[in-house]
């Protein structure tokens, strides 16, 4: 069986990718900053990264941080993968990184470019936002008496397990380049998603739509981060909320 390295293998997505690959009988090494025996900070690289990649044929690159460092981490990973003779580097990106001038998106796009130019066999899958991310956002916003959301913005949340399934299949195949995007089943207004969250958690808040400014906001408003033509996810936001919090109220 193939030896596969999953970076960020303890994260929301990487953990599920690891489980699926192991369930198929593959040897999977989990690389993260704190998980032995492959505890490596990709931003620093070093001999630990070379050891983690020894004998590895495929890398699934899930490690990422909105706080920065993704481009440096990718450079270190690519250099080490070349030294190790890796055949296939599969990367998870975000729908809209080439259309929305948002800092984190620009960084993800830059990593895509590094991978494309790496000389390695590569595959890139872009997905829409995970259900979990929206809940994290709403959990922060609900702390105020009024839940304030950007006016006119929609989203297309997708179940992370479905993304993990697609990424695992991609990793086990031949390098495929940029593959079709994966979007959640519905494009919904952010207001409707926020109200669904409030119902599911039994909270009562007024929801205020506030217009923002800037190129990134305009791109979000015009749907640069959604892919209605690739709405292949099956799990709706309400289904996710019901599983996580119990029965969604009326």
UniProtKB/TrEMBL annotation:
Domain of life: Bacteria
SUPFAM superfamilies: NAD(P)-binding Rossmann-fold domains
NAD(P)-binding domain segment(s): 8-132
Protein name: NAD-dependent epimerase/dehydratase family protein
Species of origin: Streptomyces dangxiongensis
